[in-house]
Write a structure and sequence with these properties.
Blueprint (H helix, E strand, L loop, with lengths): L8 E4 L8 E4 L11 H8 L3 H9 L3 E4 L1 H17 L4 E6 L7 H8 L3 E4 L2 H9 L7 E3 L6 H10 L2 E4 L2 H14 L2 E6 L14 H13 L4 E7 L7 H20 L6 E3 L11 H10 L23 H9 L10 H8 L2 E4 L10 E12 L4 E5 L20 E3 L8 E6 L8 E9 L8 E4 L21 E8 L2 E6 L3
Parallel strand pairs: 3-18, 4-5, 4-11, 5-6, 6-7, 7-8, 8-9, 9-10, 10-11, 13-15
Antiparallel strand pairs: 1-2, 3-12, 12-13, 12-17, 14-17, 15-16, 18-19
Helix pairs in contact: 3-4, 3-11, 6-7, 9-11, 9-12
């Protein structure tokens, strides 16, 4: 990991000529935490290159088996706490079809926010009753689909509630949650304010022959346990009060925002302590980064929420859910995709600069979405093959477009040798929000293909996902 009392320095004279490249190892390396399947693929002498030749460009490599493991861990956390609940995969985090099959097989759900996501989920085996419809100001078509298929809709505003009432009257019924504007995120554009929530509850009472008011939902920014435990407990009180008024109110959705750790703590804190002044090409500066090391993460974060204090009571949040007969619903995206995919870019060229080089990758930064949020995806890409002639260098990574700001990595990343045309760059753990959130066909380039890695006959093999 480049740790040590001093700085190990290497000088590399590029084969292509030009000035030597000075490599400072300490505080530059950010090796990603790696799932066993990803290491197995990287160590395979043929698989990565065979796929690259078959698809003729960059590709996303997906591993639904890892997604399934993550999904089961969330379910296990609910059962361990004695809580009845359901996991809805946040489909916006990655569009690939293979995740939906895992959700269907596990009898879990999918969180959707468009008619296209809704229809796609149905087409891949998700029952309508296992769909959670979220987002702002759902279209009437989407509300109609949800009512027809018995899905649950998180209602976000009073005018949306009125459209839901109209649809429910026409179809017969609709199941709804009322989304709450959290005091933690008072400037969010989502959710009912306290006054609006009271009016929405009154409207649900008036329309209870058509609207089944299932309970409440919220989503918090950040990745903290305590605010989620506190708000869940507060809404349990609201559920009990709503039942007294004749509403079903038997569920609370605590949304997503389950943390993921991409790096080991030692590497992440060394990066933060180092300062970023000389680490990025062109002196590029960033105002923020995703917290690439966190704890607890994923299902362990859910377990911590359920074990948290319930608003000053002696009972835990999980105990209160169990005792009150309230279902806990959740909508993780990134956390279910943790370790379940990587992105592979062929190298097109390399040019030296004063203290680093510039790699041009066959692909665009739209396939690495952190750049399009004004930030940087920090885990080190791996150069493949990992061995070969040449001295260590550090290099940033540019895309294949004509735009100067089309950069996959601004950071001067250490590589064991100078990259060459025909090599591959493997960006690790990109399935959650990095792969396809912002992809476009700029320059009329085809989108990267999605490739599924699966185990058969005792080894990993591959097939194409849908186009």
């Amino acid at each position: 990991h480049g740790a040590g009392a001093g700085r190990a320095r290497h000088r590399a004279g590029p084969r292509t000529g030009g000035p030597a490249v000075e490599l400072t190892q300490e505080a530059l390396r950010l090796p990603a935490k790696e799932a066993p399947w990803a290491r197995e693929v990287r160590e395979d002498p043929r698989m990565l290159a065979d796929i690259a030749r078959a698809v003729g460009g960059p590709y996303h490599l997906l591993h639904p088996e890892q997604f399934g493991r993550n999904l089961r861990e969330f379910g296990r956390a609910l059962r361990t706490a004695g809580v009845d609940g359901k996991v809805y995969y946040g489909k916006k985090a990655n569009k690939a079809a293979c995740w939906l099959h895992e959700c269907a097989t596990a009898d879990e759900g999918v969180d959707v926010a468009s008619t296209q996501e809704f229809s796609d989920s149905l087409a891949h085996g998700i029952r309508g009753t296992d769909l959670m419809v979220t987002g702002a100001a759902k279209s009437t078509d989407l509300l109609w689909l949800a009512a027809r298929h018995g899905s649950t809709v998180a209602i976000d505003a009073l005018d949306e509630l009125e459209r839901a009432v109209s649809v429910a009257r026409a179809v017969g019924s609709m199941q709804v949650l009322l989304r709450v504007l959290p005091a933690e995120n008072p400037h969010s554009r989502f959710g009912f304010s306290p006054d609006e929530l009271d009016r929405a509850l009154e409207r649900c009472i008036q329309e209870r022959d058509h609207l089944t008011m299932r309970g409440f939902s919220f989503h918090l920014n950040g990745y903290e346990v305590a605010p989620r435990a506190s708000l869940a407990s507060e809404l349990l009180d609201r559920c009990l009060a709503a039942r007294v008024q004749g509403l079903q109110a038997d569920a609370i959705s605590i949304g997503g925002g389950f943390a993921v750790s991409y790096l080991e703590a030692e590497d992440w804190h060394r990066f933060l302590d180092r300062g970023t002044g000389s680490l990025f090409h062109g002196g590029k500066e960033f105002s923020h980064f995703y917290p690439y090391h966190q704890a607890p993460t994923g299902a362990e974060m859910l377990a911590a929420i359920l074990a948290g204090p319930a608003g000053g009571r002696s009972a835990t949040v999980g105990a209160r859910f169990a005792q009150s007969g309230t279902r806990l619903l959740l909508e993780p995206g990134r956390a279910l995709l943790d370790g379940a995919g990587c992105t592979v870019f062929p190298v097109q060229g390399f040019k030296p600069r004063e203290d680093h080089g510039i790699i041009t990758a066959d692909g665009l930064s739209t396939s690495l979405s952190e750049q399009w949020k004004g930030s940087e995806f920090l885990p080190d890409p791996v150069l493949w093959p990992e061995t070969g002639p040449g001295e260590p260098v550090r290099a940033c990574v540019g895309g294949a477009s004509c735009l100067d700001y089309d950069m996959l990595s601004w950071r001067k990343i250490p590589f064991p040798r100078e990259p060459r045309s025909g090599d591959l760059l493997i960006y690790p753990n990109t399935a959650g929000y990095q792969m396809d959130k912002n992809e476009s066909e700029f320059h009329q380039r085809p989108l990267p293909r999605r490739v599924v890695a699966f185990r058969a006959d005792g080894r990993l093999q591959w097939r194409l996902d849908r186009p």
